[in-house]
Amino acid sequence: CWGIEPQLRKLKLEYGNAIEIEYRMGGLLPDWSYNSGGISKPSDVAHHWDEVSIYYDMPIDGDLWLEDPLSSSYPPSIAFKAAQLQDAEKAHLFLRVLKEMVFLHKKNISKWENLQAAAQKVGLDVEKLKIDFEGKAKVLFQEDLKLARELGVRGFPTLFFLDTAGNKQMVYGSKPYIAYENTLLQIHPIAIKTTFDASWKALFSEFKTLTAREFSELTGTKREESEKLLDELTAAGKLKKFTTKNGAIWTWIP
Description:
Elements: H1 5-15, H2 42-56, H3 64-67, H4 74-86, H5 88-103, H6 112-122, H7 126-133, H8 136-151, E1 158-162, E2 168-172, H9 177-187, H10 200-207, E3 209-211, H11 212-219, H12 223-235, E4 239-244, E5 247-252
Antiparallel strand pairs: 1-2, 3-5, 4-5
Helix pairs in contact: 1-11, 4-5, 4-7, 4-8, 5-6, 11-12
């Protein structure tokens, strides 16, 4: 979920040496026969996205659903499973690019042309991705849906923390970072927190793009101070800023 990217990125930096993070696809929107919580057509999602952008303090432009709405969330989910068949790290980068495309750039990521563009950007083999997208990845996606049903997943994001003995704890929804950290330590009490370089250059070297909310979470600075610093770095030619009607994202210019 885009809304918890700040917390997930911090979790990876602090505990990445002690844990493995595995992404499973939930298949929120099979098609527009879907009707839940007052959402039954694309235009219903537009207002909802603008609201959750404020709630998460992450840039999300709901106009996508008025201009070029997704027919289903299944194609990008299947494409991610296809990317995982090639390279786990590139698959994670691919997922991040897809999130930025759909939430900020209003790109319809149910269309192959946009999935292909994201794959090319992170260095995936597009021809192989297409073959797996139409074959093996569909099976893997169905396995993810089956697992979600077996675990009783009712909404997204849902995080399961598991140890090697099979013990597990669940955290549902967006929570403060400490909630995820405490749950991790309940399952893995000997996990050692890693100190990381929280300078702007180190963070952008690691992640390439950051929102103000992410930068604030990772540096421990106040949200307003984070945006001010990012804007100063932009004015100095160090970063490039892309602004939406509901927030912005910054990219490092090496």
